[in-house]
Design goal:
Layout: E1 4-15, E2 18-30, E3 35-39, H1 46-54, E4 61-66, E5 69-70, H2 71-74, E6 82-84, H3 97-107, H4 112-125, H5 141-153, E7 159-162, H6 171-186, E8 190-195, E9 206-211, E10 214-216, H7 231-238
Parallel strand pairs: 3-8, 3-9, 6-7, 7-8
Antiparallel strand pairs: 1-2, 1-4, 4-5, 9-10
Length: about 240
């Protein structure tokens, strides 16, 4: 059973040219520990696809299943196995990186001591622990992406979704962000990302192109089960 499955998903949008299909009969399967990137030009529907995968939006027709359960019927919500990376962060007076982490955890009912432990562990995993007291205004593009990933990781998701992780990140920092996503997939977390440039496809198990509402490429993994491929194994495979 796939972790996430789209079956003939359609979604109509209202762009500047009037109503039209953003997604047309999109079928897709994601396996556990797989890193998949959907890429295409801006405005092609990549963000819509990711929001539907996260349960933020619903398709007009077709089915979306998470761990075999229809997402609409089961009422799957963010934080219940799905982590959606929000790169827009609150900017309250004096608010810092750790505050941002704690706000999300406390809002989900995590007790204060546990919330702090989870927040610090997620920041350390994303190589941001040393910036835990930094004001949000002091973060650069790469640090903001790492914070968004850390906030999602704190809820222990089985599926991590991030829209354009390299957007707004300096070129010299992009490889580090992509390596972070790759390493999370190696640890067994399924990662679904989007990209608008070929340079952001590095490390993915599969890349799928979206244009004119249609998803092109292999909609399912070539193997029934995708096993995490750790860095050592990748080096050996590469010779």
């Amino acid at each position: 059973m796939s972790l996430l499955e789209f079956e003939h998903v359609c979604k109509r949008g209202t762009g500047g040219g009037g109503p039209g299909w953003v997604l047309q009969r999109v079928s897709l399967e994601l396996e556990r520990g797989e890193y998949v990137v959907v890429w295409g030009a801006r405005g092609c529907g990549r963000s819509t696809l990711l929001r539907i995968a996260a349960g933020i939006e619903s398709p007009d027709s077709g089915a979306v299943r998470f761990e075999g359960h229809d997402m609409r019927a089961a009422g799957v919500e963010l934080g219940e196995g799905i982590g959606y990376c929000l790169k827009r962060l609150g900017s309250g007076e004096g608010r810092n990186v750790l505050d941002q982490m704690l706000m999300g955890l406390l809002a989900r009912g995590t007790p204060q001591p546990g919330a702090r432990s989870l927040a610090l562990a997620a920041l350390e995993r994303c190589e941001l622990l040393g910036r835990s007291r930094a004001p949000l205004a002091d973060l650069d593009g790469a640090e903001r992406v790492r914070l968004a990933v850390a906030r999602a990781l704190a809820s222990a998701p089985r599926l991590l979704i991030i829209d354009e992780p390299a957007n707004g990140v300096e070129l010299i920092e992009r490889d580090g962000i992509l390596l972070l996503l790759r390493s999370l997939a190696d640890e067994g977390i399924t990662v679904l990302a989007s990209a608008s440039e070929p340079t952001s496809l590095s490390g993915a198990d599969r890349t799928l192109a979206l244009s004119d509402g249609e998803l092109r490429g292999e909609p399912s993994a070539p193997l029934a089960t995708v096993l995490p491929l750790h860095a050592t194994a990748r080096r050996l495979a590469a010779g």
